[in-house]
Amino acid sequence: MFSIAFYYVNKVCGWLMAVSMTGYGNSKLKSADLSVMVEMKSVNHRFSEFQIRMPRQLMKIEDKIRKKLASYIKRGRVEVFITIEGKGLVQRTLQPDWQLIDEFVHLVKEAAAKYSMPETVEWTEVLSRPDFIEVAEKEEENETINELILEAVGLAAEQLYAMRQAEGEELKKDLSLLLSEMEKGLSNVKALAPSVVEAYRERLERRMQELASSAVDKDRLEAEAAIFAEKSDIHEECVRLESHIQQFRRTLELDEPIGRKLDFLIQEMNREANTIGSKANDSKISSSVVELKTSLEKMKEQVQNIE
């Protein structure tokens, strides 16, 4: 009940949210002659895929069923089970083969005349033979029945989508927390970055003093430090990573399928984190990068379930 209400409130208010790809929905509708039961569940998938199991008689409206599902689900594999009970969908009639029965009766009369036997036909035996009579099914072309089936599919899809929305909102909260952790880790990296070059300069000066008895060549020292500073400069990577984090937050608020966009941003953030770790050449920054990558791994796992 809560999930359906959640769906309609979101429709009316226009809330922006991430949508999960896993969910479940069901519905049951009845008419005078028919009962329709629909169950559906969805799981992660790269694209939109509907697997519909239903009575053969519904094949003529399968395209309408798929369009109904597509109006709720943009991505994910959805299994749909449609069960029909009652006599409203198919009309059964008895179809006798009169030509064959006529030939049988004529044969009985000929045999009676030829062998001086009474012309007796056991009609209960005749009508029980599948050669003489069969049960035929005639599909009812009833638009009311079709509308009932499509309505049941729509109700189940609404329930499934509402569950996907609710789970998506939880995923969004988790991702927002992980983004905050990344922002904290990136701040640590930016704070440590200036000291990396200075620490290298001090190490280089000590090394040069150990190798030479004379005074340290200040020009050479500054040149070596400048080269190291250029090679280990992570300012651009930090700016790009910060930009990706902000873009990730904005994408979470879009009212459209965002799973692929988020996955791409995670790849880009992971690339920048790797570059920072390799360029900085500092144990403290490396430790912060490990934390960044741990958060990214958790985010990647969560994003796999977002539509």
Describe this structure in words.
- The strands form two sheets. A four-stranded mixed β-sheet has the order 1-2-4-3, with helices on one face.
- It has 307 residues and is an alpha+beta fold.
- α1 crosses α5 and α7 (235-252) runs antiparallel to α8 (259-280).
- Helices cover 62% and strands 16% of the residues.
- β3, α2 (62-70) and β4 form a beta-alpha-beta unit.
- The protein folds into three domains: 2-89 and 140-164, 2-Layer Sandwich (Ribosomal Protein S5, domain 2); 90-138, no CATH class; 169-303, no CATH class.
- The chain has helices at 2-13, 62-70, 98-115, 123-128, 143-211, 218-231, 235-252, 259-280, 283-303; strands spanning 23-30, 34-43, 48-53, 76-86, 90-96, 133-139.
- Keywords: Endonuclease, Hydrolase, Nuclease.
- Belongs to the YicC/YloC family.
- Residues 20-173 form the Endoribonuclease YicC-like N-terminal domain.
- GO terms for molecular function: hydrolase activity; RNA endonuclease activity.
